[in-house]
Design a protein that fits this description.
It is built from 15 helices and twelve strands. It has 358 residues and is an alpha+beta fold.
Length: 358
């Protein structure tokens, strides 16, 4: 990745473009409270955050991302509609020795606007596409709302749907759960012993769960074991959805066909169609725009709608830019208030490398 001076210069260029697009400049403290925010990022960022203990403020972390603190700031003090731009360094531990740095620049753009969410999605994506065009990147899009709606519409226990939704961002775990709930694989041995009454021995309570919480959990497990499996037809349609990819108009047609068996996805597919129209009006060649129904499942867990990323030709490189819609996050941080929101970030150091910065 580019040296800091080149990365900073590229960040300044992108930041100026975001300001010219109507964004207000904002900053976020490098040291952020960890207790609440870590839960919002998801498993990957939780594992990679630099966490420390402050004698007065408790557990703190070095800023791993800008979006969450910007949302927190907006929901506390911001007027609407609003557009924000920011730049600065973020910090994430790396598990292996590689070219990836633990400290790098990030520059971003966020839109809070309830008037027309599809138009806001198109605004953010088109702005990023224009700024990144000189680098010749490949764009990929998806929509977490479609998969989440499909899960919520399954004809099965609410507890099963909740478990699947918790693991949407962990593809392997999600697949194992879907197979188990569909009766395709047996219950884990530990669960089977518990159901047979051989897995619990008299012992003192250890840990944070109360006796009542343990009993409630056992009741959920027994209800799950007694319930009929998710039908093979529904399991097959979820698998078809997960494997769906192609040019956006073709993907839309295939989603409309899936809607017959998964009617719950209808409103989310309608929003996708509206978004494609908005993108076309902004000059995006939607006929060549790649759509992957599983796109976004290994990124930040606060995305709950449209997601996108821009990639270099080298598959070893991280995305040059990424973003998406995170309406539910505003409700979590808004203490009863919420507003549709979408945004994205660019790695200016990586972009500077690709553009051949000195």
């Amino acid at each position: 990745m580019a040296e800091k001076a080149a990365a900073r210069a590229e960040a300044d260029r992108l930041y100026a473009a975001f300001l010219a697009a109507g964004a207000m400049p904002v900053e976020a403290d490098i040291l952020q409270p960890a207790e609440v925010l870590l839960d919002l990022y998801g498993e990957d960022i939780r594992a990679r955050a630099y966490v420390t203990q402050d004698p007065l403020r408790g557990e703190m972390m070095l800023r791993p991302d800008f979006t969450v603190p910007v949302v927190q700031m907006h929901m506390t003090h911001g007027a609407e509609p609003a557009r924000y731009a920011y730049r600065g360094e973020v910090f994430r531990k790396q598990e292996h020795i590689s070219e990836r740095k633990s400290e790098y620049f990030q520059v971003g753009f966020e839109v809070f606007d309830r008037e027309n969410p599809s138009a806001a999605d198109a605004e953010v994506f088109a702005l990023f596409a224009d700024l990144l065009a000189p680098a010749g990147l490949r764009a990929a899009t998806g929509d977490m709302a479609i998969l989440m709606a499909a899960v919520r519409g399954l004809k099965t226990l609410d507890s099963r749907k909740a478990a699947l939704l918790r693991h949407v961002w962990r593809p392997a775990r999600f697949t194992r759960l879907l197979e188990r709930f569909g009766g395709l694989v047996p219950q884990p041995e530990s669960r089977q012993r518990l159901l047979e009454g051989t897995g619990i021995l008299p012992a003192p309570l250890v840990g944070l769960r109360s006796e009542a919480e343990i009993a409630a959990r056992i009741a959920v497990i027994r209800a799950d074991a007694a319930a009929p499996p998710i039908s093979a037809e529904e399991v097959g349609m979820i698998e078809d959805l997960l494997n769906l990819s192609g040019p956006s108009p073709e993907a839309l047609t295939r989603l409309r066909a899936l809607e017959t068996g998964l009617p719950a996805i209808g409103p989310a597919v309608d929003r996708m169609e509206t978004r494609l129209d908005a993108l076309a009006r902004r000059g995006i060649a939607v006929g060549a725009l790649e759509f992957e129904a599983s796109h976004g499942r290994t990124t930040l867990e606060y995305y709950d709608g449209f997601v996108f990323s821009f990639h270099a030709a080298d598959p070893a490189l991280p995305p040059v830019a990424s973003g998406g819609r995170y309406d539910a996050l505003t409700a979590v941080l808004g203490q009863g208030r919420s507003i549709p929101a979408v945004g994205g970030v660019i790695r200016p150091g990586l972009l500077a490398d690709l553009l051949g910065a000195p």
